[in-house]
Amino acid sequence: AKVLRLSHRARSEHTTGRLNALIAADAEAVELCLGTLHLCWSAVLRILVALGLLYAQLGPASFAALGTLLLMMPVQTSLVIRSSKAQKRALQHTDERVKTFSEAVGAITTLKCYAWEEPALRRVLACRDDELRWLRVRVS
User: Fold this and answer.
1) Would you give the DSSP letter of residue 114?
2) N or C: more exposed end of the chain, with fewer CB within 10 A?
């Protein structure tokens, strides 16, 4: 429904593949935000409860766990930044794949007429391979 509300000028600035990718990314971002929103407010509570339970079992040695938690924060931050950069690159490749596929589908009669199905398929699969490579980088 978002695409239908765009002005003609806005639609002419972006390809259909790009618009589809943006909409999918927006939907994924909203889903991710709503799915993890409760983690923000409950993280402090869970840490305090865990430290309390550790203190009850281990005494002052439980503060080593707190120290480890605090020392690991920069490592986590760097991993999140790396993952975010990889995700951006993967989304760029996804945009390219969707754009290439949409163009092929839009020109399917021309492709069939001139028997260009194989070259078009190779282009789409090459874009897909690039996308998968960046998705693997994100996972690893």
Assistant:
1) T
2) N
Q: Which long-range contacts (CB under 8 A, 24 or more apart) does 22-27 make?
A: 25/91, 26/2
d(CA 89, CA 96): 11
Count Cβ atoms within 10 A of the Cβ of residue 54 and give its class: 0-12 exposed, 13-18 middle, 19 or more buried: middle
Furthest C-alpha separation in the chain: 78
Residue 28: CB atoms within 10 Å: 11
Asked if residues 103 and 124 have their Cβ atoms less than 8 Å apart, the reply is no
Question: Distance between CA atoms of 109 and 104, rounded to whole angstroms?
Answer: 9
Express each pLDDT in 83-94 by its tens digit: 888 888 888 888
Alpha-carbon dihedral sign for residues 36, 42, 46, 47: positive
Helix %, strand %, coil % for the chain, to 5?
95, 0, 5
pLDDT at 56: 95
Residues in the chain, pLDDT under 50:
none
Which has the closest alpha carbon to 109: 120, 99, 100?
120
pTM of the model: 0.53
